[in-house]
């Protein structure tokens, strides 16, 4: 959904298109989003998790998301 929203849906060609139906949830890899981190790289994983927690806690994540998307990403 994000790919279409930030790509095609932002163009004049999309004037007569809209998202319809329920949001798709789950699937092959389950619910949620993912960030790839090298298997076993616990230091990088800890840094990514800490950074995400910090920007969600102070409202930065919500401000950035609202600027670009009319829906929640996480």
Essential attributes:
74 residues; mainly alpha
Question: Could you walk me through the main structural features you see in this protein, from its secondary elements to its overall organization?
Answer:
This protein has 74 residues and is an all-alpha fold. It has one domain. Helix content is 41%, strand content 0%. The two termini are 13 Å apart.
Topology:
Blueprint: H1 2-6, H2 42-57, H3 60-68
- What is the mean predicted local confidence, pLDDT? 83
Total number of β-strand segments? Answer: 0
Please tell me how large the radius of gyration is: 16 Å
SSE topology string:
HHH
Q: Would you tell me the structural class of the helices and strands?
A: mainly alpha
Helix content bin: 40-55%
Contiguous runs where pLDDT drops below 50 for at least 5 residues: none
Number of domains: 1
Main β-sheet, in a few words? none
State the end-to-end distance: 13 Å
* Annotation field: number of helices: 3
> What shape does the CA trace take?
extended
Strand percentage, roughly?
under 5%
Brief summary of the model shown:
With 74 residues, this protein is mainly α. It contains 3 helices and no strands.
